[in-house]
Amino acid sequence: ILRTTGSGSVWGSGIYTDDSKICRAAVHAGVISSRGGVVTFRVSGGRASYAASTRNGVTSGKWGSWQGSFQFTGGAAASTSGYGSGPVQRSFCAATPKAYRGSGRT
Q1: What is the rounded distance in angstroms from the CA atom of residue 33 to the CA atom of residue 22?
Q2: pLDDT for 12-61, tens place per residue?
Q3: Do residues 16 and 69 make contact, with C-beta atoms less than 8 angstroms apart?
Q4: How many CB atoms lie within 10 A of CB 45?
Q5: Alpha-helix runs per DSSP H in the chain
Q6: How far is CA 86 from the centre of its chain?
Q7: Cβ(5)–Cβ(100) below 8 Å
Q8: DSSP state letter for 48
Q9: Residue 9: what are its φ and ψ, rounded to 5°?
């Protein structure tokens, strides 16, 4: 599965519904730029509600109760985070071609 930073729905802010697009949420959270990278996150149970916000050029939606969540972790926090009880997971996020247009890079 190719995961990209440029498309997909994001629900929540800081803590996201587990059906949010991981790479798009990572840009929203400031974990990576639209150029991509490796992200680390922890899956956990759901929440009663998820807030909306606009960060780093990505607008997330608000949502009510949902059964599963994830939150990004980083560096040493990946193994010591107190958030949730689920396993730490990693994913590679690739930039969409649009992210490179006009950047002068090849």
Answers
A1: 13
A2: 999 999 999 999 999 999 999 999 999 999 999 999 999 999 999 999 99
A3: yes
A4: 12
A5: 22-29, 77-80, 97-100
A6: 16
A7: no
A8: S
A9: -85, 145
